[in-house]
Amino acid sequence: MRVDVLFGGASVAPSDISGRVVAVIDVLRAASSIAVALSNGARAVVPLETSEDVVTRAKAFERSDVLLAGERRSLPIPGFDLGNSPREFTREVVEGKTVLMTTTNGTQAIAGTQGARDVIVASYVNFTAVLTMLRAALRGGTDIAIICAGREKRFALEDAGCAGRYAHHVAKRLTSVQLNDAAHACVLVDRKYGEQLGRLFDASEHGRTLREAGFGDDLAACAALDSYPVIPLYQDRQITRLGPDRER
Ligand code: MLT
Prior knowledge:
Elements: E1 2-7, H1 14-17, E2 21-25, H2 30-39, E3 44-47, H3 51-58, E4 66-72, E5 75-76, H4 91-94, E6 98-102, H5 106-111, E7 118-122, H6 127-139, E8 144-148, H7 157-171, E9 178-179, H8 181-193, H9 197-203, H10 205-212, H11 216-222, E10 231-235, E11 238-242
Parallel strand pairs: 1-8, 1-9, 2-7, 2-8, 3-6, 4-6
Antiparallel strand pairs: 4-5, 7-10, 10-11
Helix pairs in contact: 6-7, 7-8, 9-10, 10-11
The structure holds D-malate.
């Protein structure tokens, strides 16, 4: 069995993920915001490439049923209802709504996973819930691919740390699981920072950029391990919460 970590989101080839269970990580901040939105009762999150796509898709809904969300250069998109701060996706705001979302890296990485068996959105805030599903898949004989959305399709330290934590725990005590080199490297990153996720974020370029832009509180929200224990499943071009009402 294999657990591979892949970097660069949209540049992942179909053969890298074909038939696998795929976890897409964008810790800062799209994956965390999606987990918060679904946990707080959003009907679905639809990941879209551009802000124009969001505006066009919104026309298919009653205006009161949708929220337009996303960022460019970390900042909310003018005219949209929400940015990409997990703290914005409160129950009061999102319950019962479909969130149409575009972000620089995260939503692109999620949308670029055609051919995977199942696609899950993973972060620290829903770590154990997603881990449980990944372990069940691996035990059932399905290989795992962990895609790090990264930053501008490149390596991002915070995604590597989170991927390392998943790779380590998903393979734990299971014999004959092979990790690729990237997964091994990510395990080392996770081991270096351990529970000190604040230090991990402060060491990362993206974390520092967000802090400088005034989003320091988002870093704390994204570091709150298991605070939103949902399994966000991407299927039929939308992300919904896997649970009793949405079995696979
Ligand atoms: C992204 O998808 O690129 C990120 O979530 C950016 C951000 O921090 O808002």
